[in-house]
Every structure is written in structure tokens, then in C-alpha cells.
Design goal:
alpha/beta; bacterial flagellum biogenesis; nine-stranded mixed beta sheet; EC 7.1.2.2; elongated
Length: 441
């Protein structure tokens, strides 16, 4: 009886009708497949025979009886006339708790050399819809990040989505690893989209460390991966986070970077013949960004939440470039990292005056807000007068508020210095800020 039941399940798992076409042309990364009229859909998966080696691809465009496809791996060796089998079953991701501590590629395959992954019982779509706006929960209470600059000036709340805007080489990856290790959530899901291959192991072993990795799932698609794999890595990161959120847990989702996701979508759009729009980005880039970013946030009734930090790589430190501008309008706040501050040797190089959390002021109590605003005023006044002070053009005693700012601003800056092993809880950080801002006798 057990044998009969097993045979029945195996038969039901078989695809009863199979559709296949053949490669008609290869234009750069774009593969044109004919013979799938009426059966291929946008997002359908194909397996193309490449000299006896299967290459996974996805349908990204349709033109009459031609399906435009892009591969998930290098299409070297594909020839015209090669068979392309259409997968009629929807591709699903099946995460489980056994994925914690593991490193996977953009479509959920293990790449850490630790054997196969234990799959969960239920599948989750790679590209899911966010919870309904009418039923999803509200953003929760303030989270302890252990980072003084954030806990005081740009606090992070449960289910909030923040953007991390930074140029290259200002400590973005280190800040993200501190959040992955320190934020009070159940699980961290980290997406490295378009990351340099050399830096992946450094991030996992040095920045994240064994303690951070043990409660994390890391999704990696390096910069040399095809555009489709880089875009898929972003979707996979959110799909894994959604799986844990749906089970009632609170997830910290870190993605580095949204800019490279947008670049991958631009490559896909241009390959499909879309017209370039703002700075070469195609219209689908700006349609896909909110669909990706809105998947993070609070879940629905009975679910957990996804607290997310999406990094944005600003070209030439231009914070008004199209992707940065679009992301800033979608998220619940932004953290700006400054190259000028990094060059002064203050890490994390967060620009307090340009960073905003839309959860303020309600996530601080009245005394904390008064301290925060007073510190910001001193930093702003000192920033306006800094050049005059350095040139000796300002005479002490000319303005009491400027004198106070000159006294306090360097102390506030020193308070914000922090190494990746120097964790401090928010109450202690506020106590230190209050002590240094006490009036001088």
C-alpha cells in the first residue's frame, strides 16, 4: 500500500504535457526562442540545451512567436537550433530554518560548500505581492541597533524601511554587518547584489563573523553574474525574508545594493528593446523599485515584520541621481554616509544633519527628543561657522550660541565614533550625550 501511495505521488509530480521550442538567434545576452507561441509567459522558466549542459533561462519579453530570454548563467556554447524546454510548473523557493548560517546564490542554491539545503514543506514565490495596505500592521516599537548615531538621531523601528545612501569606500558594508549582528530581531537575511567577488568572504568571515552568520541567510550574486541572476538575487532575498515573516518572526533584511538591482533591470530592459529614459534607466526600473521595496515592512495579522535597510550606491556622491531620488521617495527614512566625514576618520561616517527617520519624533520620549534637537542645533551652527573658526575670523565671545556650539560639536562628534565591536545601548548613549551637554559652570 505504501509503495502504491509513493508511486501515485511520483505520477502526480510529473509534468503531463511538455512544451519545447528551439533557439532561433542569440544577440549578446539575449536568446530568441521560437516554437512556444501560446505557451510561454513573461517570467516562465526555460532549460536550454548547451552542448549537453542545461542552461536555465527566463522569458523576459514576447514578440509574436518569438520569446526573448535571458540566461541565469554564462550562455557560452549555445547554438541556433538548440532545444529549449519550457518548465510548466511555477518556480518556487522552499526555505526552512536549516538555511540559517548558509550562503546561497540568486536562485537559492547553496554555494558555501556545506552540502545540499534542507527544503521546507511549502513553496514561496520569488516575486510575491506585498501585504495589503488595508490589513498590514503598523510599524512597531524602536529597535536597539547598538549604534549611537542611529539610536539617537535616526532611530530604527520594527518594520521600518531605511535607505543607506553612500559612495564607495565610506564604511557601508561595516555598518551593515554591525546591524546584522546587533539589531534585536530573530533572523537576518542579507542580500549581496552585484558585490565584488573578492569581498564576499571578507564580509562573511570578518565583518559578519560566526555569531552574525549563525542567525543569518546570505544571498550572493557577484558583479560578474548575468543581469538576470543579479535581479533574481534581490527577489530571492525578499522571498526568504517573507518566509520567516509569515511564520511570525521579526526579520532584519539588509540589501547591498538597490542600485545594482536597478542596473541589472536596466540591462534586461535594454536587451528587450525598451527605450532608455532618465540617465539610461528604462521605465521598468522605476516600476520594479516600489514592487521590490514595498515587500519589506510590517506583515499582516498574525505575521511578523521585515525591518529593512537598502543601500544605495550614489555615483560621484550625487545624492540626487535618479535611483537615489526614487528610493528616497518610497522608504521610511534615509541614512546618508559622507565621504568628508570618513576622510576625517570618524566611523561610522553618518551625516547626522542629512539623515532622516520618519518615525521621529514619536519613537523617542520628550527628554530624548529635546536632547536630540539640541545636539542637532549645535552641529548645524558649528557647520555654518567651521570655516570662519579655522581661518581665525571668528572671535570668541562674539555670540554665545556659537561659542556653545564650538565647545560641544567636537564632543558630540567624538561620541559618535564607534568601532565594529563597540556596541552601546540607547539609554547609555543618551546618558552620555546628556552629560556632555550639561551647561558649563
Amino acid at each position: 500500500m505504501q509503495t502504491l501511495a509513493s508511486a501515485t505521488r511520483a505520477l502526480r509530480a510529473q509534468e503531463l504535457d511538455r512544451h519545447f521550442g528551439k533557439v532561433a538567434a542569440v544577440r549578446g545576452a539575449l536568446i530568441e526562442v521560437e516554437g512556444l507561441l501560446g505557451s510561454a509567459r513573461i517570467g516562465s522558466r526555460l532549460v536550454i540545451d548547451c552542448a549537453g549542459k542545461p542552461v536555465d533561462a527566463e522569458v523576459t519579453g514576447l514578440d509574436r512567436d518569438i520569446a526573448h530570454c535571458l540566461p541565469f548563467s554564462e550562455p557560452q556554447g549555445i547554438a541556433t537550433g538548440a532545444r529549449a524546454d519550457l518548465m510548466t510548473r511555477e518556480s518556487m523557493l522552499r526555505p526552512s530554518d536549516a538555511w540559517l548560517g548558509r550562503v546561497v546564490d540568486g536562485i537559492g542554491r547553496p554555494i558555501d560548500g556545506r552540502g545540499p539545503l534542507l527544503l521546507g514543506p511549502a513553496g514561496h514565490p520569488f516575486k510575491a505581492d506585498p501585504p495589503s495596505a488595508a490589513t498590514r500592521n503598523r510599524v512597531g516599537n524602536k529597535l536597539e541597533t547598538g549604534i549611537r548615531a542611529l539610536d539617537i538621531f535616526a532611530p530604527l523601528c520594527q518594520g521600518q524601511r531605511l535607505g543607506l545612501f553612500a559612495g564607495s569606500g565610506v564604511g557601508k558594508s561595516t555598518l551593515m554587518s554591525m546591524l546584522a549582528r546587533w539589531v534585536e530581531t530573530d533572523i537576518a537575511v542579507i542580500g549581496l547584489v552585484g558585490e565584488r567577488g573578492r569581498e564576499v568572504q571578507e564580509f562573511i568571515e570578518d565583518d559578519l563573523g560566526p555569531e552574525g552568520l549563525a542567525r543569518s541567510v546570505v544571498v550572493v550574486a557577484t558583479s560578474d553574474s548575468p543581469a538576470l541572476m543579479r535581479r533574481q538575487a534581490a527577489w530571492t532575498t525578499l522571498a526568504i525574508a517573507e518566509h520567516f515573516r509569515d511564520s511570525g518572526r521579526h526579520v532584519m533584511c539588509l540589501m547591498d545594493s538597490v542600485t545594482r538591482f536597478a542596473m541589472a533591470q536596466r540591462e534586461i530592459g535594454l536587451a528587450n528593446g525598451e527605450p532608455p529614459a532618465t540617465k539610461g534607466y528604462t521605465p521598468t526600473v522605476f516600476a520594479e523599485l516600489p514592487r521590490l521595496l514595498e515587500r519589506a515592512g510590517p506583515g499582516g495579522p498574525g505575521q511578523g515584520s521585515i525591518t529593512a535597510l537598502f543601500s544605495v550606491l550614489v555615483d560621484g556622491d550625487d545624492h540626487d541621481e535618479p535611483i537615489a531620488d526614487a528610493v528616497r521617495g518610497i522608504l521610511d527614512g534615509h541614512i546618508v554616509m559622507s565621504r568628508k566625514i570618513a576622510e576625517r576618520g570618524r566611523y561610522p561616517a553618518i551625516d547626522i544633519l542629512k539623515s532622516v527617520s520618519r518615525m521621529l519624533p514619536r519613537c523617542h520620549d520628550e527628554a530624548e527628543n529635546d536632547l536630540r534637537l539640541a545636539a542637532i542645533r549645535h552641529l548645524a551652527i558649528y557647520g555654518d561657522m567651521e570655516e570662519l573658526v579655522r581661518l581665525g575670523a571668528y572671535k570668541p565671545g562674539a555670540d554665545a550660541t556659537v561659542d556653545e556650539a564650538i565647545r560641544l560639536a567636537p564632543a558630540i562628534e567624538y561620541l559618535l565614533r564607534q568601532t565594529k565591536d563597540d556596541r552601546e545601548l540607547a539609554p547609555q548613549a543618551f546618558a552620555r550625550l546628556a552629560a556632555l551637554m550639561e551647561p558649563k559652570p
